[in-house]
Every structure is written in C-alpha cells, then in structure tokens.
Design a protein that fits this description.
The protein contains twelve helices and 13 strands. It is α/β, with parallel strands linked by helices. The chain has one domain: Aldolase class I (TIM Barrel), CATH 3.20.20. It is globular and about 50 Å long. Its cofactor is FMN.
C-alpha cells in the first residue's frame, strides 16, 4: 500500500508531497484508521532519564516542526515523538527549493533553515494533544539572532516549552543556520550549556518535576572533537545526547546529480557516520543515555544502533522511503525478550 502511495508522492515536489502525506495521515487518524492500517503499537516499556517509554523507537525532530500533526504521528506506534526545531519567533526558513530526494541512495538533503511558526504556536498545539507518549521538544535559535546572542533564544524557548515537554533537546548541530555548529566545541559549548542547565534546574524546581535536558550533535566530528563535546556534556550534567543530526559530507552520494545541493544529508548514507559517533560517545560517557538517529531503514539497522551504544533510536528519512510500517518493524526488532 505504501509503495503505491510513495510512487505517486515521489512524482511531486518533495516539500509538497511532505505536506500532502502529513495531511492524509491527519485525515486517516481522524476517522480512526491509523491503527487499523498499521496495527497496535509494540509494547516494550523502558525506563530512561526518569521517563517511561512504551518502546525504544521515536520520531526525530524535523518531520513535525510545529506539533501540528502530533496526534496522528503518535498513533503510528512511536514510543516517543520529538517535535521542532522551534525558535522564539516564527520564521520562513530558506528559499525554496530546499528539500531534495536522492532516491538511488535512499537519502534526503534539506536546507530548511528552522522554518517554523514560533514557540507560542508550538506550545498551543502541544497543549491540545491527545497523544500520551513521551514528548520531546527540540529548540533552536532564530536566523536573525547572532551566534554571540544565541543563548538568549535558547533560554526563551526553554522557558516557553518547559512545562509542556517531557524532555528538551538543544539543537546546536543543524548545518542550515549559519554559525550554529561553532557552538558545539570548547568554551562556546560550556558557555551555552551551563546557563541552559542552570535555568532548566530552576524551572524543574518551580514545576516540581524534572524535565531531562539533552543536546543534539553532528556526525561530522573527529574523535578529538567528540571527546571535547563529551567533556562538556559531563561537566554540565546533561541528561542525554542525541546522535546525530544530518551531515555535510557527500562522499557516499557523489554519483547523484543533486549531491552538490547545499544542506544537511540524511538517510542511509549517514548510518555509519552516526554509529561511529555513538560508539565514541559511549566510550567517553559509559552511563549517559544516548538516542541514536541516522540512516535507520530496517529493524536490523535499528538493532545496530543499539549495538553501537544507543539506548533509544529515532526515525525520519527511513519513514519516507520505507513507510510507517518501519516503526513497528524497528520496535519489534528491539523488543526485549
């Protein structure tokens, strides 16, 4: 069924088909058809970061930037859903076209640039949700905010989403916001994570519950750079890390005519790069919760992420190529005996 739908959607502009697919999923959900088509969610409870996940498979940030489709996506059987990246103010993102399929490599290049409706809209949508699984909210900075003032945007978003999130992810690794990735290293990372951690703890105390704080990092790092990031994560007592975001590398897709499009590459070609970072992080931070994301297109690939050192996994590009049935296939592959 999905292969037929995909053949039609792939005839359209990628961003147009993305919107149509989500609209169709919303309609199917409203008539109670999602679980009839894709089955009951896999139950495989796991406790992590003080949260109870119904299974180990989540939706990565980026697919539902504004939490406009949260209930329908949650009905696909995810153990957790991450929405965003959201910024303090609404912004249109980069000019179109900004989304490209590299179908021969089961990959996607995007240069969206944090297009979203702003944090107030996202919070309003989250407050209306019926989905009761774990909800992560991914936060970032506005394009017009300088890197030097990035902390202000992160704190604004943190304060806005804290009361409605189950966990919060700090996105410092998108390649589509100029200068953002410079925040991943050394003193700049400490200068960002320290105040965010401090404010998060104050908000936790005021709310009377802990909202775990994670950071999302890039795959394009050397072993030494991963060690620097790990050190900062440990010093600032973060609750977890999401590894990894999209890559700027193109070695694996050079044969594709669209390989030189600017933006972040996701999908199958990122699989090994993200696994490498996960292994390095696990060696540096033996007990830190790690969410593994990048190139998962099967239950076997999800299991390989866990074997590399991840505790949970997230899907995105694999859903585009394999369809929603991938959620159940991965959750079944990771189910504990």
């Amino acid at each position: 069924m999905y292969n037929f739908a995909r053949s039609l959607l792939f005839r359209l502009d990628p961003e147009t088909s993305h919107g149509l697919a989500l609209g169709a999923l919303d309609t199917l959900h409203r008539v109670g058809g999602v679980q009839r088509v894709y089955g009951e969610p896999v139950s495989d409870p796991v406790e992590l970061m003080g949260l109870r996940f119904s299974n180990r498979v989540g939706l990565a940030a980026g697919l539902d930037k504004n939490a406009d489709h949260l209930d329908a996506l949650g009905a696909l059987g995810f153990g957790f859903v991450e929405v965003g990246t959201v910024t303090p103010k609404a912004q249109p993102g980069n000019p179109k076209p900004r989304l490209f399929r590299l179908a021969g490599h089961e990959a996607i290049i995007n240069r969206f640039g944090f297009n979203n409706k702003g944090v107030e809209h996202l919070v309003a949508q989250v407050k209306k949700r019926h989905y009761r699984g774990v909800l992560g909210i991914n936060i970032g900075k506005n394009l017009t905010t300088s890197v030097e003032n990035a902390l202000d945007d992160y704190l604004l978003c943190l304060e806005a989403v804290h009361s409605v999130a189950d966990y919060i992810a700090v996105n410092i690794s998108s390649p589509n916001t100029p200068g953002l990735r410079t925040l991943q290293f050394g003193e700049q990372l400490d200068a960002l994570l320290g105040p965010i951690r401090s404010r998060s703890q104050a908000l936790d105390s005021a709310l009377g519950r802990k909202v775990p704080l994670l950071v999302k990092i890039a795959p394009d790092m050397s072993e030494e750079e991963v060690a620097l990031v790990a050190g900062s994560i440990a010093r600032n007592a973060l609750d977890g890390v999401i590894a990894t975001n999209t890559t700027i590398a193109r070695d694996a897709v050079k044969s594709d005519p669209q390989s030189e499009e600017a933006g972040g590459l996701s999908g199958k070609p990122v699989f090994e790069a993200s696994n490498r970072v996960i292994r390095l992080l696990r060696a540096q931070l033996p007990t830190l919760p790690i969410i593994g994301v990048g190139g998962i297109d099967s239950g076997e690939a999800a299991a390989a992420k866990i074997a590399a050192g991840a505790d949970l996994v997230q899907l995105y590009s694999g859903l585009i190529y394999q369809g929603p049935g991938l959620v159940k296939a991965c959750a079944e592959a990771l189910k504990q005996p």
